């Protein structure tokens, strides 16, 4: 029988991308070929995001766009929709989207082959997601092999008022440290120099295994993997960012001096409304401690503006905090009123912040941060950096694109690389020595002066056609 071809679309966060890569691996393992375009596929899978308004709209638009490849005699005969939007609105979607053949939830990743074969019920969503892959689970990488995401845990037990994730992803469940280590070793053996650890709440890793916060010991364990250059930590929770973790980050050369820690707000009343479980002073003290314990650390954070109850004064407090803390990277989201969250109820009592005001607050905070970022970029001119080469730059045929230790994939700026005279053209995945010559708001320009570590990738990376937005 002719092999069936399947095309995947992956929406949302890196954790969802890992799920897509597992579904790619399971499909490939079961004998499906991976199509490079929807028109070449017998089946299409859309792995959705259902976190906030915009993401939900994008998921619906993408499903309808992919459904067109089934219509009018298109080659595709099956459309499968998975992920967080399905987990959240299973019944409604099954009623409103007749063009979809199978629905799987965020915890049904391991049922993808059955769904592709039409062997699962149309509404195959498990209402209590419990799945978590491990190192023996087939997984096809969708990013070039020099970088990879490793999901060390799934789900979340925290009560943050604005967040629907615990309802979409279930309770916290951590992978065994041995399994994570084996997977990291495997990825590094294929050429990965950068490993990005992700989870909904990274810093609570291990609590469900033995009652202890286990991220610090996991980091020390992974720091021993030869060939890895940057172990990067994403989604740290303030109150679970321990001294032991900061010491592990500071001590271990292979651990990127980079911490991504969403703080969401600083105003005490807002943190209370958001049920973050701490006051503003905690965040201020933590930022200071992180900088003291991890010299040269790159600190990334995200904030929500416009949450119910956010007064002008509360917003001013946030602006002051961003000015005084001078974070390296800041993301700002406008509050999204999500049904099923505590905040949605709060909005009724405390009053909603008008969308125009939300948007102007988001712009104001980004304006403050842009000036801070530009000043920090300027201060890097003349410095020598180790830069991971990602490929030819989209900006110019004479430049390469790269990132240094303080720049995470897909969310931070980059380094535009020119070659010094007589310097050999670098390959994708090489780590080069480069001197910073220029700057912009979020990006740097630098001149390559030599190679620090040639890539160990066996062949030029082939990007699987997984759309990630
Ligand atoms: S820790 Fe993150 S994922 Fe968990 S409830 Fe809070 S915001 Fe949501």
The CATH class of the largest domain, by name, is Alpha Beta
Rounded Rg: 22 Å
Ends distance: 35 Å
Low-confidence stretches: none
Number of strands: 19
Q: Please, what is the oligomeric state?
A: single chain
Largest sheet: 6 strands, parallel
- What structural class results from the helix and strand content? alpha/beta
| Chemical compounds bound to the protein | iron/sulfur cluster
Q: How would you sum up the global shape?
A: globular
Q: Per CATH, which architecture of the largest domain? A: Alpha-Beta Horseshoe
Helical residue percent? 25-40%
The whole-number mean of residue pLDDT values reads 95
How are the strands of the biggest sheet laid out side by side?
Answer: 2-1-3-4-5-6
Portion of residues in beta strands equals 15-25%
Number of self-contained structural domains: 3
Tally the helices. 14
């Amino acid at each position: 029988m002719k092999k069936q071809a399947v095309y995947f679309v992956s929406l949302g966060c890196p954790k969802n991308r890992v799920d897509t890569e597992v579904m790619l691996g399971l499909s490939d393992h079961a004998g499906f070929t991976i199509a490079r375009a929807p028109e070449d596929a017998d089946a299409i899978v859309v792995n959705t995001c259902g976190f906030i308004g915009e993401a939900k709209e994008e998921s619906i638009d993408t499903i309808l766009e992919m459904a067109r490849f089934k219509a009018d005699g298109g080659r595709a005969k099956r459309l499968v929709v998975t992920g967080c939007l399905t987990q959240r609105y299973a019944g409604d979607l099954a009623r409103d989207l007749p063009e979809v053949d199978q629905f799987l939830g965020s915890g049904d990743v391991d049922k993808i082959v059955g769904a592709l074969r039409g062997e699962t019920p149309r509404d195959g969503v498990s209402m209590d997601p419990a799945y978590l892959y491990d190192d023996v689970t087939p997984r096809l990488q969708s990013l070039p092999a020099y970088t990879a995401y490793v999901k060390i845990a799934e789900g979340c037990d925290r009560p943050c008022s604005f967040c629907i994730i615990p309802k979409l992803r279930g309770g916290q469940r951590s992978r065994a440290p041995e399994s994570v280590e084996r997977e990291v070793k495997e990825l590094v053996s294929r050429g990965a120099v950068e490993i990005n650890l992700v989870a909904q709440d990274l810093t609570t890793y291990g609590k469900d295994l033995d009652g202890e916060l286990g991220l610090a010991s996991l980091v020390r364990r992974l720091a021993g993997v030869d060939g890895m250059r940057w172990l990067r930590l994403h989604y740290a929770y303030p109150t679970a960012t321990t001294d032991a973790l900061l010491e592990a980050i500071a001590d271990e050369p292979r651990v990127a001096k980079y911490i991504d820690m969403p703080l969401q707000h600083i105003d005490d009343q807002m943190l209370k409304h958001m049920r973050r479980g701490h006051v503003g002073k905690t965040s201020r003290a933590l930022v200071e401690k992180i900088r003291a314990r991890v010299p040269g650390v790159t600190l990334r954070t995200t904030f929500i503006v416009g949450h119910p109850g956010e007064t002008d004064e509360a917003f001013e407090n946030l602006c002051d905090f961003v000015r005084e803390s001078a974070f390296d990277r800041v993301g700002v989201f406008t509050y999204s009123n999500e049904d099923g969250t505590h905040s949605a109820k709060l909005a009724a009592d405390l009053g909603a912040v008008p969308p125009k005001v939300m948007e102007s607050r988001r712009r104001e905070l980004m304006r403050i941060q842009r000036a801070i970022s530009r000043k920090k970029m300027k201060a890097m001119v003349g410095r020598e950096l180790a830069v991971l080469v990602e490929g030819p730059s989209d900006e110019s045929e004479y430049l390469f694109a790269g990132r240094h230790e303080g720049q995470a994939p897909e969310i931070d700026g980059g380094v535009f690389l020119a070659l010094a005279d007589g310097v050999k053209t670098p390959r994708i995945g090489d780590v080069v020595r480069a001197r910073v010559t220029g700057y912009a708001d979020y990006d740097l320009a630098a001149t390559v002066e030599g190679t620090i570590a040639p890539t160990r990738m066996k062949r030029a990376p082939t990007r699987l056609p997984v759309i990630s937005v």
